[in-house]
Amino acid sequence: xxxxxxxxxxxxxxxxxxxxxxxxxxxxxxxxxxxxxxxxxxxxxxxxxxxxxxxxxxxxxxxxxxxxxxxxxxxxxxxxxxxxxxxxxxxxxxxxxxxxxxxxxxxxxxxxxxxxxxxxxxxxxxxxxxxxxxxxxxxxxxxxxxxxxxxxxxxxxxxxxxxxxxxxxxxxxxxxxxxxxxxxxxxxxxxxxxxxxxxxxxxxxxxxxxxxxxxxxxxxxxxxxxxxxxxxxxxxxxxxxxxxxxxxxxxxxxxxxxxxxxxxxxxxxxxxxxxxxxxxxxxxxxxxxxxxxxxxxxxxxxxxxxxxxxxxxxxxxxxxxxxxxxxxxxxxxxxxxxxxxxxxxxxxxxxxxxxxxxxxxxxxxxxxxxxxxxxxxxxxxxxxxxxxxxxxxxxxxxxxxxxxxxxxxxxxxxxxxxxxxxxxxxxxxxxxxxxxxxxxxxxxxxxxxxxxxxxxxxxxxxxxxxxxxxxxxxxxxxxxxxxxxxxxxxxxxxxxxxxxxxxxx
Length: 505
Known about the structure:
Blueprint: H1 4-13, H2 25-31, H3 41-72, H4 76-95, H5 101-105, H6 108-131, H7 140-171, E1 176-181, H8 185-195, E2 202-208, E3 219-220, E4 223-227, H9 231-238, E5 243-246, H10 253-263, E6 269-273, E7 287-289, E8 292-298, H11 304-339, E9 345-351, E10 357-363, H12 388-395, H13 403-410, E11 414-416, E12 426-427, E13 430-431, H14 432-435, E14 448-450, H15 452-455, H16 465-480, H17 484-497
Parallel strand pairs: 1-2, 1-5, 2-4, 5-6, 11-14
Antiparallel strand pairs: 3-4, 6-8, 7-8, 9-10, 12-13
């Protein structure tokens, strides 16, 4: 007979199976559908603005060099005037509300507004040149050609944009995948109001509600009830969700707060519908989904142009750092190979963005036959599993350098962000998310090689509750206060922070 103590010891030595909440068949059916990556409307409209300015500038300059320059010679005043016209055109299009995905989808409306604005810009340019008494120096043939060819170019570009937008819309890339909280009459009214909107980008996946009494409907305005509020977290990890929208009235404050405590860890927008509330605030207090007023509760961090900026920062600086450190990495790889038998690199499952599982590369620091890919046992001081070279590279964090491959080539890590912990990382007998409330909120952004917690001394072994709580605290501060300059500061401060090796074993 095996004693209870021996059984518990054996169970503790085995890799712990990760807990996954069981979803309802209806939720699983929705989550199993193929979903394409979403495109940001903010990025699309910004790209069209840039394309407008670039194309108009090219048309004007090309016509200038092709017709005016051979006759009158080169003059910078023409080039500056062309750039001014192109910039004014973009501003005029913006004022005419041309730059929106809904307008791009149409044909007549966007063409009418755009041609009218382009004509206004040229009339304005002619008026300015007249009052400045430089109209006689401007080639009328060039000006006419610039107006006509510029307009034709804009029309052709808008036709192409319309085709792309409609194609992306069919693929679901422009949809805001939304779940509704509240399977009652308020939920029915909200869903009906959203579906009445013209050109709406809201795609309602289903409804969630904790109640099991008569107030909770199985089908709400044609949308199926998919489960309880706790299920939304697991549901969001199996399929893309962009928005969680509460249909509950503001008077249900206690229920809403309890639900928000569970859902705020998700990298999604969370809003409270105000369409049925009798209490009304100023219009500027609301954000709108078409005509439906909502109150913002939580917003997804680092989105749109911020996300593009961070992506460029990672790729540019990551590539530079990888090239500069290539000789060091080669020496470390040679040392690992000569020190003990086994592969040079070690792959370990870590938590990535929104709890997705990613393979993180490291230089092998343990003996190959004692490798611990599940991180079931934390490496401690004087750990016999660590090789001689492994002890040095762990203390100096040189073992982390292969994660630059994750940043530059795989894109599942950032240079800066919350450190990706192993999926079986534990504090004593508890998984990290069991030890700290809101632990998974660190995964609302992509993890990083270094981070705000690390340069403030919170790196290495996690053997006390304070250490994991402080890491989460610093990680959440980073997420809420992110900027490119903040990332740059952390990158520059990291080499200095690595000199402190007290907690690295």
